Structures are given as structure tokens and as C-alpha cells.
Amino acid sequence: MEGAIAPLMLALLVSSEISALLPNPASAYRAQGRTAARGGGGGGAVYPEFRSNYGTIRWISDQMPIKVYIAPGLTLDSIIDPSLGAPFTNVDGRDRWPDLVADVISNPQTFQSLQVAQGYVPEHFQAAVQGINSWKAFERDGIRFQIVEDPGDADIHVFWTNHFVNKLGLGLFQNDIRGYTAKRSFPYKAIMSGKQAQFKPVVTLLRTTESNGVTMPFMKMKASAAHEFGHALGIEGHSPYPSDLMSVYYGRGAISTNDAATIRYLYRMTPDLIP
Ligand SMILES: [Zn+2]
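Above: inputs. Below: predicted complex with zinc ion.
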């Protein structure tokens, strides 16, 4: 229609932990009969699951350094959706987390009312920093980020929760999900052609306790933070190889050669979407 402004197509992507729901990933991978590309350099295999249903997603150089805010223990769980009587941070409502965090950081009163998550210990902050900083290994591949102290400056926000709840507010204690990352992404070509986009925070929530309620151990928290940051960078799905950080099993808790090959491959591509 002449003169009409085409609304910018908006794709919402949510990455999540679904380990409790999946069969053995290696057999599922074989059953699908796919082959992994060789990443070149380092000998790892690129796992195609990095790609979302909407295409490839990654940050572009204009967005770098990506700014990462790690809240000192703060939880958003006190913010209740009145229509549900459950926290906005329920895992069924992950598509709204970016808006929630945008609202919270633009409202000082709300931000200052946030409490520290039960089960959080100061070591968790250091674990998150170390896990996230393990991706600094890819600065030469064009991934640049820095941890900032002002949430108003940040592109990626890390908050905490004692345990996840569903939209009924019921605790999800039965599974071993340690984190979720939610992002909203926009078509790269539309942005490049000058269309305006309302970018929203990428939101990661990390769980402070294991399924038995015990405080999350340091190395597990480090692995959780590193894994979720892999999602924040654009590895949308999970590696089928259990020994990879980006598998649903967190691998050995560190970036593997397959993870390295995959992130390098992704950051050589022209993205379909940018966060
Ligand atoms: Zn994951």
C-alpha cells in the first residue's frame, strides 16, 4: 500500500534448557542423519543446531563491545504479573523478559526494591564473571564484550533466581535446568537498510540452587554462566555432543573444540537476525 509504513518484522527467540525432556542427544543426532561441517582451525566440528528456526543470529561489529551487566545477586522474582498471580520471570513467559528488564532498569524505584535471590553467595558473581569471560578467547574472531556496572549501559543482563517457576507460580524442582536466556532479534537486512528497531535487553537468569535446594557449586555456576552466554552470543540450539559446553549436559563445563568451531563459523557468517 502506497505510503504505508511496513512494520518491522520482529522475531522473538528464546533459548532454554530442556535437558530433562530430551532423549540421549547423540542418538537423536544420528537418527536425524545430519552431518556436521568442519570448522577449520582447531579441528572441532560445527554443530548445525546453533542456527535458530528463524535463521542465524549474532551480534554485529557496530554493536561491540557488547556490554554485559551482572546483577550482584538480584532477583526479579518479586515482580508479579497481576494477570497470572505469578512472577513475570516464569519460564512460560520468557518472551516478555526483555520488556520486563527494560522496564525495571528504566525505573530506579523498582530497581532499588529488588532483593537478593535466596541461595545466592558472592562466589556466584565471580563464577559468572569467569564463565562469561571464557568467551574472551574469541576476541580475534570479532567477539568483543565487557562487563559493566551500570545496568542502564548494558545489552545483556544477568539476574538470579532461587528456582524457576511456571506460569502458575509452581516451582520447577524436578529438573536440572540451571539457566535461561531470552532475547528479541531483528532482521539484519532491514536494520542495514535504515529501518528503526526498538532493541531490548537480552536477559539471562541463573539459578542459585541445585534441584535438591543446595547452593549451586562454583564450577557448576561457572559452566551455567558460560553456557548461557553462548546462547546470548547467538548459539541458539544445543550441541548434540554431550561433551560440549553447549550441549544440554554442559559438557565438561568449558568451551570445547566443537563449541569453538561453531562460534567461529557463526561469526564469519552474515546474520539473518541481530539481537
Ligand atoms: Zn542451553
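The helical segments are 25-32, 97-105, 108-112, 122-133, 188-192, 218-233, 257-266.
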